[in-house]
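Okay, is this right?
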Amino acid sequence: MFLVILLYAICALTFTIAKLTLVFASPLFYVGVRMFAAGLLLLLFAVVGRGFRRLIRSDLLLILGVAFFSVFIAYACDLWSLQYLSSSESALLFNLSPFAAALFSYWWFGERMTLKKWLGMVVAVTSIIPIVTGGESVLTHFPLWKLLPIFALLTSVLSSAYGWILVRELVKTREFSPFFINGIAMTIGGSLALGLSWVMEGWNPLPVFSWPNFIFFTILMIFIANILFVNLYSVLLRRYTATFISFSGLMCPLFVALLGRIFLNEELTGSSFISALLVASGLFLFYEEELRQGYITKKTDVSV
């Protein structure tokens, strides 16, 4: 369980770093460069670790699905929407991921959602309410121009959830190395994002406004998000279900608030502690039921 908590502490860092990077480059170009570079790096790790395996047709189709949904669509929509939404708003909307993951897991793996699991999920999702009502409510002060960014972010949530279902099939059922799978998917997805950037953002000159800052934050994000977060997520899918890992993401907005307090001197209100209690309660109910159903193994295989 500690690794799941660590996963979303790392995730919280990515919201702040991504928001900062968008000051120095356009979103599609940033996604393309970051994913393509990270993909090549992960493929190098796979070569060193002898993680390469021969692909059959069905494996290749799954990897292409990961590249398109989990990399290209998910990150392009996420980074585009982040231009118009705050990092905390983005983190809160990602709390809808467990519902998408539960739907896809039921369809793909036949994982059952019992009454106790629904109760745990509902309890944890109510953690949004104290955060929203504890400050300026985004519901009562809602500008209509945010509808398109929110739709793009919801598209990212659905695409990401579906992509992780495909990753789980590859790393758990077919026993591929996460470095190998993510390396190929990111290289392909990054190439697609660069192609779309060339069409939509114009490369005359390249859409970068400060090369030193862009390079620094891109390298930092590749290390934190594309190496630590993505591969830890893939490894944890060998023990936990995609629904549980996605559901645990409800911790992420709480970490975003905590990091905001530490690094940005933002106020940490009592509503954040209430939200933390609700998330912990919901996670406990959900985890207990997944353990009872046998979806969670006793030991985690952390090999990559």
Summary: Residues 39 and 183 are 4 Å apart (CA to CA). Residues 134-139, 298-304 have pLDDT under 50 and may be disordered.
